[in-house]
Amino acid sequence: RKEVEQDPGPFNVPEGATVAFNCTYSNSASQSFFWYRQDCRKEPKLLMSVYSSGNEDGRFTAQLNRASQYISLLIRDSKLSDSATYLCVVNIPNDYKLSFGAGTTVTVRA
Amino acid sequence: ETGVTQSPTHLIKTRGQQVTLRCSSQSGHNTVSWYQQALGQGPQFIFQYYREEENGRGNFPPRFSGLQFPNYSSELNVNALELDDSALYLCASSSNAGSYEQYFGPGTRLTVT
Predict the structure, then answer these.
(1) Segments of chain B scoring below 50 in pLDDT
(2) Separation of alpha carbons B38 and B70, rounded Å
(3) Chain A contact set for B26 (CB, 8 A)
(4) In chain B, which among 78-97 make CB contacts under 8 A with chain A?
């Protein structure tokens, strides 16, 4: 089983729509969770950390469900500039390694 | 911008050759991690360097090796290149080995023919 699994999408949504997607992780001892954004042929950039209580950053909301071992990202009022691949990232316990999912592609259309 | 730089930006090598990729970490960061990202995949952890020592390694063969220098810049060396080594190689710096907040450089795109 992969350490981090994501629905690859693509999610094609109109501007202004809400889009949400999840990722699942295999190691129940993982403690740190992140969403990174990666534009085509560019480096990943940290979008937000995911906290146990859930957290919001503007139009972006991240949730963590430890019992089911998934994290989610919701984007409200989608903008064209939100078009990107979103990478789910989880730490590997007792290791300084981060494990990345393969990414979920979101395309926002006018 | 993150302040993490990598060189070169693109590179074409032939199977069997050796390659060295370079990374300068963000000011104040003493930890560098290297990742390989194949097309359509997420970055895969190669190894991490902290204060000039290897501090963790992913599932990559020994022909992938690295160095970190006193100024915390780093090199990734790959010997006996194979076609499957074609990928984007990313380095990420962090403030210390225990920090998971990593800042990526723009990457080096390696093509092996």
Answers:
(1) none
(2) 30
(3) none
(4) 88, 90, 97
